[in-house]
Design brief:
Shape: globular
Order of helices and strands: EEHEEEEEEEEHE
Radius of gyration: 15 Å
Structural class: mainly beta
Length: 146
């Protein structure tokens, strides 16, 4: 499986996997992880099959409640349905322009989010789509241990 915009080894697709990141990632990229706390993020995932055809699309939004190398960038979803995880890579967060954003899957309008996160999953296993929608990229991040 390929995740565009982020290079990582992906042995077998799944939610609970270990993805290596630099141990000092947050020190290098974010002066203070606390600066991201409470920021409003719209996260979108486009799912494509092995032929490159779009098979599904999902968007959610919420506030950042945790930032770390172990659990990634964690959003508390605005609809109250739980947490949504992004990998611990601030490059996944792009500043949003002020304005109104309509979520494609629900029609909900989000006003003035702080960041946007857009991901394309290529060759996704169809049985895993609902897990991505529910939890995002939930896993254990950090250096691979023996």
């Amino acid at each position: 499986m390929t995740i565009y915009g982020l290079a990582m080894p992906m042995g077998r697709e799944g939610i609970e996997m270990k993805w290596p990141v630099l141990p000092d990632f947050l020190k290098r990229r974010v002066r203070s992880p606390g600066l991201l706390m409470g920021k409003h993020v719209i996260a979108g995932i486009t799912f494509k099959d092995g032929e490159g055809r779009e098979v599904d699309h999902f968007q959610t939004h919420g506030r950042i409640v945790e930032v770390g190398n172990t659990r990634g960038i964690v959003l508390e979803k605005a609809d109250g349905s739980g947490l949504f995880h992004l990998p611990p890579n601030v490059d996944w967060l792009k500043p949003a322009r002020p304005g109104s954003y309509r979520l494609r899957n629900t029609g909900e309008v989000v006003i003035d989010p702080d960041y946007l996160s857009t991901t394309i999953l290529d060759s996704v296993v169809p049985e895993n789509i609902e897990r991505y929608k529910a939890q995002g990229f939930f896993g254990t991040y950090g250096p691979q241990g023996g």
